[in-house]
Specification:
4-stranded antiparallel beta sheet, 10 strands
């Protein structure tokens, strides 16, 4: 996987416990032409809010990405010409990938597994959680479903999120 494991941070010290992605693949998406490249970018936080940028392979727009200084969401800004209008789009990957705290709690209810410990405030490796849920789905002999994406311009998601979303869809329909 693109440079290593996906890491999440589970926070329980806030009023509302949360999970956020601190490292993992995100989409190389252009809001100007709504093209999503099949090559993801590795998100690993930001430097003063700047996540990175790229040139769209379809329309040539310059796409810049920012976050809230290592906090979600990721905002995309595309400009096809230096003096042209800027086209924005915001993606909350925790929602798109179903990796919010309530999503994990729902999977726990469906499976009986403990994925997040209430007293733990720590970084988590995501892939072992996916394996744990996949093993439970296999043990139950559930037919794997294909997930639908929550954003109309998203046509694919990178691994391990595709597997996670398919497992989520499978459990949701079981």
């Amino acid at each position: 996987m693109l440079g290593g494991m996906v890491t999440l941070y589970h926070s329980v010290r806030t009023r509302q416990p949360s999970v956020m992605m601190t490292q993992g693949p995100i989409l190389r998406y252009c809001p100007a032409c709504q093209h999503t490249s099949r090559t993801p970018l590795l998100y690993h936080g930001s430097r003063y809010g700047h996540v990175g940028g790229f040139e769209c392979e379809r329309c040539g727009a310059r796409v810049s990405m920012v976050d809230r200084d290592c906090y979600p969401p990721v905002q995309y800004f595309a400009r096809q010409t230096p003096d042209g209008p800027t086209v924005p789009e915001t993606i909350l990957y925790e929602d798109l990938y179903h990796i919010n705290e309530p999503d994990f709690r729902q999977v726990e209810r469906w499976t009986g597994l403990t994925l997040l410990r209430q007293e733990d405030e720590k970084a988590l490796a995501f892939e072992p959680l996916v394996v744990q849920v996949a093993d439970e789905v296999t043990r139950r002999a559930l037919p794997l479903q294909t997930a639908a994406f929550s954003l109309p311009f998203v046509t694919w998601v990178p691994e391990p999120f595709e597997t996670w979303l398919n497992l989520y869809a499978t459990l949701e329909r079981a």
